[in-house]
Amino acid sequence: MDDYVNNMMEDFPVKFNKDSKQETLAGNDLLEAGKGKLLSAEYRQIFHATVARGLYVSKRASWDIHPTITILASRVQEATESDWKKCVCMMQYLFYFKSHTGGTLSFGGDAAQVMSKKQKLNSRSSTEAELIAVDNVVTMILWTKLFMEWQGYPIEKNILYQDNKSAILLEENGRKSAGKRSRAINIRYFFITDQVEKGNVKIEYCPTDDMIADFMTKPLQGEKFCKFRDLILGPQD
Question: What is the pLDDT of residues 98-139, one digit of tens each?
Fold first, then answer.
């Protein structure tokens, strides 16, 4: 994977040196729509190719760039100057951290799987959005449990951490805990309630400051970015 990233650097028009240290992937404007003029046809092609190759890297080795790649991939058709700056930041980050070539599949240590994607429908509240997010990831959680058990490794505690206490009530009790703003939620999003009752998964509260999943949804900065990156990938030298 080092050779693959090195080739990306060689083909990228902006060059970096050993002093080009980029601690974080993007600024607080990562989630904002592209600003400035549209890129020229030549740079749109470079942008598109870089994002496509970065997507491969995010799947195979560097999971920490996955949130940024997800945003940039949605901009390839109408990339602007601000999108290009975000792409340059990502490449500068990769240049400094490109020695990391993989993750370790484990439980209780580094991340085994990650997910970062947009929700396919609008939600009316943060609680509803949390419930939809759980529905998106619960299949991965349950499949991993079944896979490990079929390999002969029983899973005693299959815990899903949540930082929204209202969402926890809905996930554990279903419609019995639904209020006026959550009565219209589609019944499919209470699949998690059935799995809790069957004992296939347990939901526990996790403070927001310790919620590692925020790495996949928010443009974290500074100490918090480094902390969560190390928990996902393992300590960086």
Answer: 433 222 234 566 566 666 666 666 555 667 777 777 887 788
